[in-house]
């Protein structure tokens, strides 16, 4: 077997299952899960209609590069959303969800024969980044989020010797799990580092359409343009319909940016066998070309967060995030000594509510685990269920 598989860490949910194996949740209460970030709002009718109306696409092999109409729809959406002009032929590539592409991109851009090949990730982070680095033959390095700066990554924690070995940086904005959006100054810092050391930036932006301020989150391509960069050199962004359009089962997203990288990525994907079904492509075109369902989806999340966040803030260190559908809540010291795992296990046992301990989403780096003492709550269920979960969490905290 590939020896690199032995370097992988257990996924957070596997670790949580091991921790909760001996726990019997309170049977008097119906189970509520805030642990998994799986959108549970209804899929848009226009997407379902497009799927059903294009079943003839099942009868032919799809092209790995996707249909021109889909690439045009993605480029058109990026233009409307970010004010950038993408060449739909050379700078856009449909993918089977951002997760698959985040992983396979590393296999394309990493040269493991170079000594000390390194991938820099935010910390805490989406675990695919680390796995992609390890299976590409690279070593992950971590930039911790800083609670004092709205959970922005402190890229200054990475020393010059590490930057010199770095081939890929994963950025996540809006962040998972923190919900933080990278401001223009942080992009400026990261672009300068990329220019100096030659690494590729992969910007994971799958939560970009769920936000709570009047202004939509800044995107990487938008930031590059605002900073006067004349091309997308060493920059790619990844986005998805899963959260934006509530269709995680479609596995539909895109990668856009540096044409040189996308050309190599397309070659890799041609051999990898990852073409998107023509049926899914047709439904994706319908989704990217419509904003009404996105506005309604965002409004539903805003309503839930407006109800739940004030309740939880009475007992936890939590506030409305910039974007995304997670609450990244701190456990006060008087509750289990601020221990995120102890709080999560007690909550499950006594009130049958599942949350994800923050320490499972991070690694020890620079002398600490930046997820320790926090929990991630995904407000993906309908409003009544989220409100009931919040009531139980408040009751549990008060019981302590």
Radius of gyration: 21 Å
3D shape: globular
Query: CATH topology of the largest domain, what is it called?
Result: Aspartate Aminotransferase, domain 2
CATH class of the largest domain: Alpha Beta
Under the CATH scheme, the architecture of the largest domain is: 3-Layer(aba) Sandwich
| Domain module tally | 2
Ends distance: 48 Å
Spell out the helices and strands N to C: HEHHEHEHEEHEHEHEHEHHHEHEEEH
Q: How many separate helices?
A: 14
**Mean pLDDT score:** 97
Biggest sheet: strands side by side, in what order?
2-9-8-7-6-3-4-5
How many strands?
A: 13
Stretches with pLDDT under 50, minimum 5 residues: none
Helix content: 25-40%
CATH H level, superfamily name of the largest domain: Type I PLP-dependent aspartate aminotransferase-like (Major domain)
How much strand? 5-15%
The secondary-structure class comes to alpha/beta
> What kind of sheet is the major sheet?
8 strands, mixed
